[in-house]
Every structure is written in C-alpha cells, then in structure tokens.
Write a structure and sequence with these properties.
322 residues, CBS-domain, 4-stranded mixed sheet, alpha/beta, 12 strands, 14 helices, 5-stranded parallel sheet, 2 domains, Rossmann fold, elongated
C-alpha cells in the first residue's frame, strides 16, 4: 500500500512538472508585452478570477505586492456587486481563468471597456471569450489535470501559478527592485531578520571590547581576554588601528608549544590580518564569513581600520537569524 501511494504521488508531481515545462516552452512575445504593460502601468494591477483560478490570482497579487508592484484582488462575482469600484482608469487587469468563459468574468467586460483598461488574460483556452476580449493572452493550457479523471484543477493551477511567478519576478527584475527595497516590505519573521538585521545591531562595543597595544605583555592580554569574555583580544597600534587578533585557540597553541610566552609582548604572538567586516553589513553576511573561515569571532572596523566592535557566533545564533 505504501509503495503504491508513493508511486502515485511521484507520478502526479512529475505530471505537474511536465505541465509547467510545456507552458514554459509556449512562452512568446506576448509575455514580454505583458511585462512592458505592467511596467508602464501608472495605477495598480487588478487581478481577478473565480474559484481555483481566483486563488491563483490572490497568490499573484501577494507576489506582486511583495516585489514592488502595487496590486489588488477583485473577486469576479463580488465585482458585480460594487467591488469593481476599486478599478480606476490608470489600472490594468489580469484575468485568470482556465476555461476563459466564466460568466462572472464576461459580465465584467463592459465595465473594463468603459474605463478603457487593458486586460491581460492568463488562460488555458486561447479561443475563449476572455482571450478575444484581452489585449494580451498568456497560454497556460495543459494536456490534462493530475488526477486520472481530469477533473480537479491541479496541473492547470500549478501551471498558472508558475507563469504568474515568472511574470512577477521578471517585472521585479526589470524595475531594478533591490534587496534593500525588498527588505522594506518584509520587516517581520525570519525573512525580515535576514534582510534587515545588521552587524551593528549585534556587535559588542566600547568598554566591552578587549583592546590591547602591541607592547602589552601576553600575561596582561590574557587577563583582558578573561575580563571581557569574548574569547579574544584585539591588538592595536599607537593610532588605535587594528594590527591583529589573539584568540583562545592561539592561547591553547602557545600552551602546547611549551614556550615561555607570558613575558612576551602581544605584538609577538598576534595573528595579523584577521577577518573583518563593517558595522552596516548584514548580519547574514557576517555569519557566512564565520562559516566560510570556521571562526567564532568577527572584528568590526571603521573606514580608518580602527576596531569599533566584535561579534561572536553566539550573538548571531541568539538573534534567531538561523
């Protein structure tokens, strides 16, 4: 029974993947024209549909809004009872319909015509009334649904979702919508932290920094490390510029060497050119540097190469960035 269910599930997923692949192969200049129409829109994008197509439309609206294209969903049936009032003359309409012959959509056509708004159709029937009424038609027809009876909207909705995503992402890229723009629209949750949390929000500064000069004895440097409890000391020159770092790992290696190191100066045991980052860098970038170089502390410097902060891997973990 289990093997049969898994085999069937795989067949369905492959069938839907094939449907999406076929839609990709049918893309033509109409897609580019749709992108240009959205980019040139002075108002907002109104997406409409019924049933499962309406749910696809809601997803498209959410993706548009999160990627810099103002959009609203208009339920086709509710539109006939006043909701069409959200539509203005500078808007455009994207109508999603598998058959392209929905009664509710057809009754909205005169209202669209009256305002002179362009219609972009996402439909599985390029000979439908919707396709004939639309300025641009995007073909999302599929050979059949994923179920054996070809009844439940499955492959067709997946194909429409994929095309909608392609439309939104290409528009986003053509707008030059940056990560910084994206972060302004996604301040919450893990994604918000990834896009907004900066090193400066996590770093230890001022009196928390274990700073010593290159002439400081190793014995005194170890005391500074112990007092500040960040697992390292930063060695600076007379101008307070960073020379290097001395970590717990460096101390263990000195102990293992059996050398008399306590009377040495910090400048003699320092690790020069430590990994560093700026305070305005994303915390996610800092985490990547730590992971790439297998280090637990990262130095933050200013434009003059003066250390202004330290971030420990525990600071990033406690921020719930990962």
């Amino acid at each position: 029974m289990v093997k049969t269910m898994l085999k069937r599930a795989k067949e369905i997923i492959v069938r839907e993947a094939d449907a999406v692949r076929q839609v990709a192969e049918k893309l033509n200049h109409s897609f580019c024209k749709a992108v240009e129409t959205i980019l040139n829109c002075k108002g907002k994008v109104i997406v409409t549909g019924m049933g499962k197509s309406g749910l696809v439309g809601r997803k498209l609206v959410a993706t548009f809004n999160s990627t810099g294209t103002p959009a609203m969903f208009l339920h086709a049936a509710e539109g006939l009872h006043g909701d069409v009032g959200i539509l203005q003359k500078d808007d455009i309409v994207i109508a999603v319909s598998k058959s392209g012959n929905s009664d509710e959509l057809e009754r909205l056509f005169p209202l669209f015509d009256r305002l002179g708004v362009p219609i972009i159709a996402i439909t599985g029937n390029t000979n439908s009334n919707l396709a004939k009424k639309s300025m641009i038609t995007l073909d999302v027809s599929v050979p059949g649904e994923a179920d054996n009876d070809n009844l439940a909207p499955t492959s067709s909705t997946t194909a429409a979702l994929a095309l909608g995503d392609a439309l939104a992402v290409v528009v986003q890229e053509q707008r030059g919508f940056s990560m910084e723009d994206f972060s302004l629209l996604h301040p919450g949750g893990t994604l918000g932290r990834r896009l907004n949390l900066r090193i400066k929000d996590l770093m230890h500064t001022d009196d928390e920094l274990p700073l010593v000069s290159s002439n400081t004895l190793v014995k005194e440097m170890i005391l500074e490390m112990t007092a500040k409890r960040l697992g390292c000391a930063l060695i600076v020159d007379e101008q307070e510029k960073l020379i290097g770092i001395f970590t717990d790992g460096d101390l263990r290696r000195l102990v293992e060497s059996n050398l008399d190191f306590l009377t040495k100066k910090s400048g003699e045991v320092v690790t020069t050119d430590p990994k560093r980052i700026t305070a305005d860098a994303l915390a996610e970038r800092g985490l990547k540097v730590m992971e790439d170089y297998k280090i637990t502390v990262l130095v933050i410097v200013d434009k003059q190469e003066k250390p202004v902060g330290l971030v420990h891997i525990h600071d990033i973990l406690q921020s719930k960035l990962v």
